[in-house]
Amino acid sequence: MSSYAITGAARGIGFEFVNQLSTDPENTVFALVRSKTTADRLVALGRPNVHILEADITNTNGLKYAAAEVARITGSSLDYLINNAGFVESERDGLTLESYSSEELLTKDLLDSFKVNVVGVIHTINIFLPLLKNGKAKKVVTISSGVGDLDLTIGFEIATFAPYSISKAAVNMANAKYAAQYKSEGFVFLAISPGVVDTSTRPPTADELERFNVMIGKLRKVYPDFTGPITPETSVRMQLEVINRTTVDDTGAFISHKGNKEWL
Ligand SMILES: NC(=O)c1ccc[n+]([C@@H]2O[C@H](COP(=O)([O-])OP(=O)(O)OC[C@H]3O[C@@H](n4cnc5c(N)ncnc54)[C@H](OP(=O)(O)O)[C@@H]3O)[C@@H](O)[C@H]2O)c1
């Protein structure tokens, strides 16, 4: 019996974490969503062990409220925190750092990505740490991305998705900083890439499809067997296997859903 809090849980990978973890009625699962109005799929699960809480990770008051609710229900502990919420600017993700039409837009995309994907994650961890210290598992998982990996970026010549990739590389370092501080207390901090996962809620536009295909073309040069995105179900099943088998010896690692540096 374990307790889990997952941010960005209304859809995509976050929803699937809630879905798979709450199939065990012994688990208590806290699904943090930006707005309860978007939580239809979570409500439809109809599981009494799923608690839906509102928290935008850029709002520390909302996070503190959610942590207080978790504390009230668990008796002040939490076993696993899964930092899944993430921001992707999808209109301009095909641009490279020097090809923006204005300095203001570039600044905006860098700061928006950093605000959610780095600062929001750090505040979430800080606010839930007192509960995690009382937990049995002491595992903090941050969903990063293979595009935050230096070797992949250079080896595959991926110059696009820049603000997002930079923010994911930064959160990997935040993960390492927490690992450095909390290893002696038995904590496991993991940054994990979920693979390329189809979490779309609508068919791609022609532009999006073209950009995606350019990226996939580059990836296929190194992973010729890559057939396309995996489902959230497969990604989360593989991530949970990795999360469950990692120990304090792995703390600070940045690994994939396969438990290594294979990002696809
Ligand atoms: N899908 C992939 O192929 C892939 C690959 C690598 C890494 N990732 C990472 O995996 C994670 C989940 O990805 P996904 O594809 O499932 O994303 P998604 O379908 O776009 O869902 C993102 C989730 O994050 C939430 N969110 C965004 N900003 C937030 C904020 N400020 N506070 C709280 N929640 C916020 C969204 O809430 P709303 O529902 O309210 O919008 C949504 O529930 C992200 O961190 C992403 O960067 C995904």
TrEMBL record:
**InterPro entries reported in the protein's UniProt record:** NAD(P)-bd_dom_sf (IPR036291), SDR_enzymes (IPR052184), SDR_fam (IPR002347)
CDD domains, per the entry: carb_red_sniffer_like_SDR_c
Q: Name one Pfam family in it.
A: adh_short
The molecular function GO annotations come to: oxidoreductase activity, acting on the CH-OH group of donors, NAD or NADP as acceptor
Q: SUPFAM superfamilies, alphabetically?
A: NAD(P)-binding Rossmann-fold domains
Supply the name of the protein.
NAD(P)-binding protein
Species: Rhizopogon vinicolor AM-OR11-026
